[in-house]
Specification:
Blueprint (H helix, E strand, L loop, with lengths): L9 H10 L3 E2 L8 E5 L2 E4 H23 L17 H26 L7 H20 L12 H21 L7 H15 L5 E10 L5 H18 L2 H6 L6 E5 L4 H7 L1 H9 L9 E3 L2 E11 L6 H26 L3 E3 L1 H6 L35 H13 L1
Parallel strand pairs: 1-8
Antiparallel strand pairs: 2-3, 2-8, 4-5, 4-7, 6-7
Helix pairs in contact: 2-3, 3-5, 6-11, 9-10
Length: 388
């Protein structure tokens, strides 16, 4: 498979080729393995699981980039010089290299985790049996009654990453007080600024009392008059229209953003005395004027120190992992890799497979998951998974 670039990412591949941190493509120690990473075998079973985890991503990429249609011959087709199967294998290699680098570090640090994929499968089956027995005995369990193979693998790797961060945080990735303080001051406007306390006046012109066009024209006329007078209240009074006041602060922020999203967006940016554009709201059109603004200040550093530690450790961990992947000793068993064909591309599970009624049709677009989760949710997830 000479075309297949073996790397932990395209950028890493170029760096490895230039500096000679090489991938010995023919000297892997075991014909039963696909690769050896830092002395750890990548079994064919584990590689196939990685292919399954990357399957939907590759299908989406070819559908988006090349207008590919998913069908029985999809994996062997060539699109601008590349085939989905080759790309899938490369992504699977990237995935297993990342995993094995972490597992090798776990061994170095004495962290107990299954290394061989067969050990993982045994542990997964035992865990599902334990959960079923607990449910039958009316015992409390956290998470699902039964894990799928892929879900449990993600759970295991998530726990391993948590343990590695804890261990490395006491070792080579320890955080200094100066790093925490620097992060706070650099990012406090983006992450730790409290909501300003803002008071606005607003006039809402409902569409129900007139046509949409008439209501819009009336709102535009009101805005122009308010700009000229320097007062929304005076312009509304000249028309005998009702003026309301609304306060935006930290206590009301959730409800305001939920029920008054468009108005809240304007309230965030208006200076005192400034008149908004005409805003489309669910019941018609609105014009706003900011009449007071008080700076909310910042959340004190000591109240967010744990969150900062969490974020910094995430950053340091990813930096460490990227460097460890670049420096990894990787051997690829070329013959074993070549034997894995399209018939080995299994679906991860029923919910993530391609339904039969969509075969031969372009795939729908899938949204990207939120990259950044709220700290409290992440911390809750961290503790919840530890309890399983």
């Amino acid at each position: 498979m000479n075309k297949l670039a073996v790397a932990a990412g395209t950028a890493c591949l170029l760096a490895i080729m230039v500096i000679g941190i090489g991938f010995d493509r023919g000297n892997a120690t075991s014909a039963a393995s696909i690769a050896v990473v830092n002395g750890l075998d990548v079994a064919e079973m584990e590689f196939k699981a990685a292919m399954a985890q990357e399957r939907i991503t590759v299908i989406q990429a070819f559908q988006s980039k090349h207008g590919a249609v998913y069908g029985d011959a999809f994996w062997q087709q060539t699109f601008d010089g590349e085939t989905p199967l080759d790309v899938l294998k490369q992504r699977a290699l990237d995935r297993v290299i990342r995993i094995k680098v972490q597992q090798a570090e776990a061994l170095r640090l004495g962290i107990d985790t299954p290394i061989e994929y067969g050990q993982f499968v045994t542990q997964w089956k035992q865990e599902n049996e334990r959960r079923k027995a607990a449910v039958q005995a009316d015992e409390v369990i956290y998470g699902p009654i039964e894990f799928s193979e892929d879900d449990y693998y993600r759970h295991m790797m998530s726990n391993l990453a948590i343990e590695l961060k804890d261990a490395l945080g006491a070792d080579k990735l320890s955080l200094q007080a100066s790093e925490i303080e620097s992060f706070y001051h650099t990012n406090r406007d983006a992450h730790f600024k409290k909501t300003d306390r803002v008071t606005i006046r607003k006039v809402v012109l409902p569409i129900s009392h007139s046509s949409q066009e008439t209501a819009r024209e009336a709102a535009e006329a009101l805005r122009a008059d308010a700009e000229q007078r320097g007062s929304l209240a005076e312009a509304a009074a000249a028309r005998n229209w009702i003026v309301e006041e609304q306060r935006f602060d930290e206590a009301a922020e959730r409800n305001n953003r939920k029920y008054f999203a468009d108005i809240t967006e304007w309230a965030d940016t208006l200076a005192v005395g400034e008149i908004s554009d005409v805003i489309v709201v669910p019941d018609g059109y609105a014009v706003l004027e900011c009449i007071a603004r008080e700076e909310g200040g910042y959340v004190p550093q000591d109240e967010v120190e744990e969150e900062i530690r969490f974020r910094l450790m995430d950053l340091k961990y990813e930096e460490w992992l990227a460097a460890a992947i670049r420096d990894a000793a990787v051997s690829i068993h070329e013959d074993a890799l070549a034997r894995i064909g399209a018939d080995k591309v299994r679906e991860r599970n029923a919910s993530e497979g391609i339904p039969r009624n969509l075969r031969g049709m372009p795939l729908p677009a899938y949204g990207m998951q939120e990259a950044r989760r709220d700290f409290t949710q992440r911390q809750g997830e961290r503790e919840r998974w530890r309890c399983i």
